[in-house]
Amino acid sequence: MAHVTLSDNTTVYYDIIGSGPLLVLISGGRREGDWLRPTAEKLVAGGYSVLLHDRRNCGASDVVIERRYEGNRELSEQEIWVEDLYELLTRVHVTPAWIGGTSAGCRLSLMMAIKHPDAVQGLLLWRVSGGEYAAKNLGYNYYEQFNEIAAKDGMEGVIRTPFFAARIAQNPANRDRLLKLDPKEFISIMAYWRTFFTADKTVVGATDDEIRALRVPTLIIIAGDDDTHPLPVQEQLRAMLPHAEYHPPQWTKPESDALLADDKAYGRATAEKLPPVILAFLAKHAPVGV
Question: Which of 31, 101, 112, 144 could potentially form a cystine with 35 if both were Cys, beta carbons 3.0 to 4.6 Å apart?
Answer without folding.
Answer: 31
